[in-house]
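Q: I have 253 residues here and want to know how they pack in 3D. Can you give me a structure?
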Amino acid sequence: MPAIDRALSLIGIRRKQEEPIINHPLPPGNRPDISVRYVAGPGAPLWTERSYEHMARAGYARNSDVYACVSLIATTGKQVKIDRTGKGKASADLLIKAGGPTFIEAWLSYILLSGNAYVEIAHNLVGVDSLHLIQPDRISARFSRAAAAKYPEVDVWRAVDVKGMPYPIAPDDLMHSKLFNPFDPIIGMAPLEAAMLRVDAQNEGATLLKSLLQRGFAPGWIEAAKDSLWEDTQIAQLKERMRQSKLSGEELF
């Protein structure tokens, strides 16, 4: 089927042919010569890089399930009423100044997508002036190398502003919120990271299906020579081959 071969080659996949399952090269009469063909991909799977930018793009921006989960939690969290009375009035005013519900929604979204949220505390002459959320991939930690340090301690946070210029942030001027990470005591682990295996499979499956549908869907199939003579032996062999295909997860026409 040259037309199918050409269509498959456009999307970088090809058909592979097994050895014939029923083969009578010099038969008396016209015995069928049957081969099984199937589609083969490019090789080993490629997984999304476990970085904030790549996971956020593959998950939140391309996967509707991830987007729905993050949005539902974040928009629910921002409905919490901010109490501007009593001892917490100053903190509430700072939160309102930073954006209030919008700030909370972004803070929760960063936590879910990266496992970390960073809030820079800006000061003026009389105290705390404002709060600023920093995108997780724009900040990193420099750890203390002091001889007396027994456990990892952040010596200074290194951030990058919107112009791409780096600047330091003292630990006392940064509020770091994080989720538990079994591999790192400082940097949190995102729920999205645990879900990326399924996210990659869903995205890749949807992309492949769309490509195949656009170019003509072509699963595996069985081909036999035209005007083949089918007898009980050949039919039994073919049924057995189809049974084996089903057991191994192949879909054959």
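Q: Anything worth noting?
A: Residues 10 and 139 are 42 Å apart (CA to CA). The chain has a mean pLDDT of 81.
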